Amino acid sequence: MIIVLKPKVSDEGVESVISSLKQYNISFDISKGTDTTIIGLVGDTSALNRESVETNPFVERVMIVTEPFKKSNRKFHPQNTVIDVLGKKIGGTKLTIIAGPCSVESEDQICCIAENVKQSGATFLRGGAFKPRTSPYAFQGLEAEGIKLLIKAREKTGLPIVTEIMSTRLIENFEQDVDVIQIGARNMQNFDLLKEVGKTKKPILLKRGLSSTIEEWLMSAEYIMAGGNPNVILCERGIRTFETQTRNTLDISAIPVIKGLSHLPVIVDPSHATGSSKLVEPLAKAAVAAGADGVIIEVHNNPACALCDGPQSITPAVFDDIMKKIALYAKIEGRQI
Ligand code: PEP
Ligand code: MN
């Protein structure tokens, strides 16, 4: 249920509406716009009588929210959420460009790629340290050492670091060391992990599950937000379909659909969506044209020798070229790189 208050209501008015509902076992999500204030009610609202709430002099109208996702719902929070990470805003008019290798492989590799992508305009550095590999015999990542190398690359370049967490036992380390914690596609419905990252205040990059609907994805965001962490960034990275020409199928329509349903920032991963370095450019451009708040792209200094996801990795030179092209699409959309 959401309560739309009278235009320009005072803080006392907001407080009076909330105290009239304190006896119910619900929580309140207040969203203040320039003119309108909205109170979102989260929890069991079945005992509440809509007409009687509407008799409150500070209340304009009451609306029932039928969707199961509440805190992530645009009806609760009409303005776009903008998340600040070390002074860089995710979800504002400036696009978020996250770039780097699939996996951190060595100090030289991560620092050199970080310098390169920064030169081209990337605002965040990605790099996997704990890798979710299909095969237990494949490279699993440098793990804790990988995080240390990411920190070195951040010290050298100032780029905030984005890396994936796979286990709840590492929450404290990630909270301390990492700027944006990634929940990978395979863990989108690892509810214990979602609950734990929900207790932190770190921005969470929540990738869409391999075969998840948009509603399931938003419900996973809801787990994080219900735990007290409002800083969720959604990442469309392709879903499984019957098509075999590409690794996954990028659901480009998910971007405008989510923009309608939710206030959370949405970014796109054209690398995992296609599995092909040649398809990164067209899909990165399509993502920006469709209204994405940014992209996350795998960049490797030597894709042929990458320990993970070489076929979809682009070189720093190709990344530089793509950035110039994306900038043109961003301009059409009234955004900047
Ligand atoms: C990754 O970003 O390296 C990754 C494993 O992504 P996804 O979870 O989307 O497959
Ligand atoms: Mn990868």
CATH 2nd-level architecture of the largest domain: Alpha-Beta Barrel
Which consecutive residue ranges, at least 5 long each, have pLDDT under 50?
Answer: none
Strand content: 15-25%
CATH class of the largest domain: Alpha Beta
Helix content: 25-40%
Shape: elongated
Give the ordered list of helices and strands.
EHEEHEEEEHEHEHEHEHEHEHHEH
Radius of gyration: 21 Å
- What small molecules are bound in this structure? phosphoenolpyruvate, manganese (II) ion
Biggest β-sheet, characterized?
Answer: 8 strands, parallel
How far the N terminus sits from the C terminus, by CA atoms, comes to 38 Å
Under CATH, the topology of the largest domain is which?
Answer: TIM Barrel
Q: Strand sequence of the main sheet, in spatial order? A: 13-12-11-10-9-8-7-14
Q: How many structurally independent domains? A: 2
The CATH homologous superfamily of the largest domain is named Aldolase class I
The number of helical runs is 11
- Oligomeric state of this protein: single chain
